[in-house]
# Entry
Amino acid sequence: MEIIRSVKSLDAAVEAARQEGKSIGLVPTMGALHAGHRSLVERARSENDIVIVSVFVNPTQFNNPDDLRTYPRTEEADCRMLEECGVDFAFVPSIEEVYPEPDTRVFDLGPVAEVMEGAMRPGHFNGVAQIVSKLFAMTRPTRAYFGEKDFQQIAVIRRMVALEGFELEIVPCPIVRESDGLALSSRNVRLSAEARAIAPAIRRILLESLRLKADGMSPVETAKATEAAINGVAGLETEYYQIVDAASMQPIGSWDEAGEHGAVGCVTVYCGGVRLIDNIRY
Ligand code: PAF
# Structure
């Protein structure tokens, strides 16, 4: 595996691959890699001739400076994992390399970006659109792989792709979980032992909420009861729980309102000061 730090060298590697007619799989990451990332990389490895993984903590998507400062950075271990997975190129640029000048682009991301994470983290999705569009332009991938833990992010990236006219396939990949149900996240390392013991309750309560739907509750009632159950666990505090159409990300009033992609419940929970997100399909 080659570690590439400059856009110029990346461009040369991409150009060589394209000249040879090779397919390119891109896995964008912010590092602190775990088994969830590994599953994305393995999928990319099995479906493409060349695999590029970017490792870059993108400052423009953080609306909280403390979150950016304390975001885990583990470059050496990340590169070891990527090498083990048979990645061809790890793109590990500096901030200056990616943003030689400030990125002032404002994307018209529309309603998918206005609810839930978009409402709670102003500017976050515009920052995601900035970095992902740059990575797509730099790597010109055939396919790009994203984890479904950040379910809304995938909808926002699809919108950015449509706006910018990128021709590539977005490949959503299932959430990878610990054996007790906690969704893998780079932020989990920040959980204290006490918070770590509480956190799996999120998944347990989401699974129990499937029963509420089966018992005839509406999406709004199901969301209310699920949020109350999570908040009933000492040490957990929701920021939101919404049941939305899985493509438009808009809240639904009845289960029939969900289109062909179905309904998804998305939650953000503070657990011992750590912001965790998860979701479940209904
Ligand atoms: O999901 C992430 O880790 C980030 O939002 C992404 C897609 C790598 C962009 O920085």
Notes: The pocket of pantoate is lined by residues 28-30, 58, 61, 128, 131-132, 150, 153 (CB under 6 Å).
